Amino acid sequence: MSISIDKQTMDELNLLGKFRQGSVYGLFNKVRTRGGEQLLNKLFMQPLDNAAAINERSSILRSFQHAALDFPFDVQQVGLMRDYLDTETGKTALATLGNIMVKSWLSVLTRDERYKKIVQGLQATIVTLNRCHAFVSEKAWAAGPYAARVGAIRAILSDGRLEKLRRTDIYRALPVKTLAYYDFLLKRGMRKEMKEVVDLIAEVDVYIAVSGVARAKGFNYAHVLPPEANILAAEGLYHPCIDHAVGNSLTLRRGSNVLFLTGANMAGKSTLMKSVGIGLYLAHMGFPVAAASMELSLREGLYSSINVADNINLGYSHFYAEVVRVKQAAEAAASGKRLLLMFDELFKGTNVKDAYDGTLAVTEAFAEYGNCLFIVSTHIIEVGEALKGNGNIRFVYMPTIMEGVHPRYTYKLREGITEDRQGMMIIQNEGILELLKED
């Protein structure tokens, strides 16, 4: 099983969505082929849960990033090859020959296009197989993490029947008998091998696209440890979809498993949480992360409560929706799984006294679950003062610097608990009170 993550967390972190504004998927979706896009979708939906497999994928992507390759295949030819291999052929070689002969006659008599598509499909296959052979023959793949995969494809392409096909002149008309022979061979006799070739092309498409984004953006690769390490440490971590984002460093581990985050509204607390969640998710995919460096142990789940909304259909108020979300998180933590749980502005849907009491009680209870890592934010700074005796909690804040009567946000973490209280000043700066006093 892969890391557990629910729809709310997916939406809050904006992980998926080809056409969704600012999605993480959209950031990496630079693939060229249909197969590449299908594979990218699969990788995003199925992050890995094995440290060795994650680190191996990271190593492969790093090798592609170092090679700085352009996509070595013709996109149109790859599409034609896929369509050709996906069409049915006869159950026997004789049946295939008969079917193609009929299509050949019909193409002359009735201008039936099916014979032409077979010819074009085989021609595209020849072109693509030759490009694939050139790719796997490059010295760059003689060693390294992708060598075994490339070697397996090289072995397939060294089959004498495929070598003969690759030497075929696509500009000369092929006899019907030859067309039928290769149609049956590729779709029946070597169906599994052809799928391996098509899968390699999709992999190369994804690896070139993802590593290209990493190179352009200056991303790096996380090192993933077994779950027992119970650590998440990052240097210069930032949100990958925000231009010129400010990086921050943080560490969570057993004995210091709660990060208690304070700061004014707009100081950057929510963005920091999203940066951590996205970084952790991408790390479990083996993908590059927006950080100078990152090391983490495997997590079994990722859980966030950042943008909780009311639910009119269920009759939930905003506050009750928050309570339900915290209950779900508590049940997940109590299950014994190793999770990362993030809560932004706990109980902001109720009065300050209840929010204070609830945030204090819940944070203290969460700190007892040593297998889990937590980030809890609030602008009720008095809660932090009450929690100072708990050794499992590390206190950090996002500062606000006043320049005259105007706040400036550095988005840079500092140790401690904020003393910033600029809410009323912002209200005054906007001239709200003066507007209300006008006749």
> How many alpha or pi helices?
17
CATH class category label of the largest domain: Alpha Beta
CATH topology of the largest domain: Rossmann fold
Average pLDDT figure: 88
Instruction: Give the count of structural domains.
Output: 2
Query: Strands of the biggest beta sheet: in what spatial order?
Result: 1-9-10-11-6-12-15
The total of beta strands comes to 15
Main sheet characteristics: 7 strands, mixed
The CATH architecture of the largest domain can be named as 3-Layer(aba) Sandwich
Span between termini: 65 Å
Helix content: 40-55%
From the helix content, strand content and strand pairing, which structural class follows? Answer: alpha/beta
CATH superfamily of the largest domain: P-loop containing nucleotide triphosphate hydrolases
Note down, in words, how this protein is organized:
It is a single chain. The chain is of the alpha/beta class. The chain has helices at 7-13, 24-28, 34-45, 51-67, 75-86, 93-109, 114-136, 147-157, 160-166, 176-189, 191-217, 269-285, 318-334, 352-367, 381-387, 423-429, 432-437, and strands at 4-5, 220-221, 223-225, 231-237, 248-253, 258-263, 288-289, 293-297, 301-305, 339-344, 373-378, 393-398, 400-403, 406-409, 414-415. The protein has two domains: 75-214; 219-437, 3-Layer(aba) Sandwich (Rossmann fold), CATH 3.40.50. Strand 13 and strand 14 form a beta hairpin. The radius of gyration is 28 Å and the shape is elongated. Mean pLDDT is 88; it is low at 310-315.
